[in-house]
């Protein structure tokens, strides 16, 4: 059930809608009149502040990260070379002996049955 509105209430609602509409139009007009942001000028102003990370600039941080990554890569290449050329023959002979070792394995096997649950295979 809808309540019937009095004339006074109807007028108030009408005024509220009109005021809201005017407020919306004002906001839209403000947005239309506003100047666009000049990002080039903004970047020039804040150029020094943007690239700072702690006390080290972004460029220096990238240089240090590249230096550390290169150092680790060089260390790994040297280690691989040492294993290949200095210890290669020794490791090769150890691997050959390990792979060619004769071992006898006698695992315990279970009894083999046929479909009738009888041992007809002589095992």
Describe this structure in words.
With about 120 residues, this protein is mainly alpha-helical. The chain has a domain at about 10-90. It has five helices and two strands. It has helices at about 5-35, 40-45, 45-50, 60-85, 90-100; strands spanning about 50-55, 55. It has a two-stranded antiparallel sheet with strand order 1-2. The relative contact order is 0.03.
- Low-confidence spans: pLDDT under 50, at least 5 residues? none
Helix content: 55-70%
Please work out how many helical segments DSSP would assign: 5
Instruction: Strand order, main sheet: write it out.
Output: 1-2
Percent range for β-strand residues: under 5%
> How would a textbook summarize the main sheet?
2 strands, antiparallel
Number of strands: 2
| Envelope shape | elongated
Radius of gyration: 43 Å
Mean pLDDT across residues: 79
Helix and strand composition category: mainly alpha
As an assembly, this protein is: single chain
Which sequence of SSEs, written as H and E, runs from N to C? HHHEEHH
Distance between the termini: 93 Å
Protein traits:
123 residues; 2 strands; two-stranded antiparallel sheet; single chain; mainly alpha
What is this entry, summarized?
With 123 residues, this protein is mainly alpha-helical. It is built from 5 helices and 2 strands. It has a domain at 8-89.
């Amino acid at each position: 059930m809808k309540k019937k509105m009095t004339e006074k209430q109807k007028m108030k609602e009408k005024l509220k809608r009109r005021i809201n509409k005017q407020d919306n139009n004002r906001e839209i007009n403000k947005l239309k009149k506003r100047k666009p942001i000049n990002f080039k000028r903004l970047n020039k102003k804040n150029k020094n502040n943007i690239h700072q990370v702690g006390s080290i600039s972004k460029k220096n941080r990238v240089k240090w990260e590249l230096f550390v990554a290169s150092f680790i890569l060089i260390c790994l290449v040297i280690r691989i070379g040492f294993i290949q050329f200095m210890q290669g023959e020794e490791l090769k002979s150890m691997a050959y002996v390990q792979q060619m070792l004769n071992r006898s394995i006698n695992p315990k096997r279970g009894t083999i049955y046929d479909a009738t649950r009888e041992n007809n295979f002589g095992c």
